[in-house]
Amino acid sequence: MHAYIGLKVDPSRPDLPLHYNYFIQSAIYAALPGDIASRVHDNGYSAGKRNFKMFSFSRILGKFVINRAAGTIKFPDGACLVISSPDAEFFLALVNNFLIKNHIRLGDSFLNINEVRFDEQKAADDVLIVRTLSPVVVYSTLLKPEGGKYTCYYQPGENEFNKLINANLRKKYEAFYGKQPPEGDVQTRALDRPRQHVTYYKGTVIKGYTCRLKLTGSRELLQIGLDAGLGGKGSQGYGCVEKVR
Known about the structure:
Elements: E1 2-9, E2 16-17, H1 21-31, H2 34-43, E3 45-47, E4 50-52, E5 56-57, E6 65-67, E7 72-74, E8 79-84, H3 88-101, E9 103-106, E10 109-119, E11 127-132, E12 139-143, E13 149-153, H4 159-177, E14 187-190, E15 195-201, E16 204-210, E17 212-216, H5 219-228, E18 241-243
Helix pairs in contact: 4-5
């Protein structure tokens, strides 16, 4: 399920920080009833040693103006935030709260909610074309020869990108449904040139890519990717996608 939330920034409040993912994530948890927030934040859904929150959200979409000196961004003509999840209890509780409050607070900024639109997007068969609404993050943590660790990020078109997207979808399916995923791998192909985005989450550099992607594989695995997001760090605002009709 996807929710498209129409927003209007309160001009009397400070502009948004340029790297705002953490503030959106915090607003999502704050909007949930305590028991659901604890379930999602503290436990989520587990498969082996992996734990998934089972939601993702987009960048704030709309015409924007960046003030690099101040490190801020504003959306003078309004904007849209997309949140997706296969977890119906989480999803409905979150959206109901937003509708009641009519605003989202992101740090010192206020965004008034003027519209909420629902869209139940379906992977109808074994081919799905999606548009990335926030960067897809795919990475491995590797050991340096001299000791220590470093993070290696992959982009669409690389073998490791395809391999790790598939493994991630299978783990998410297992975690959410509590059973083994369908047989067969999901193949990923970029339909246009991937664009790299370097962002910061709580001071940590994160690299991801946006483009249109063609996914081929089990319909059940494609659906979990459509709802829960592709790649890692979904609950931090990465990997949110929508179906290209």
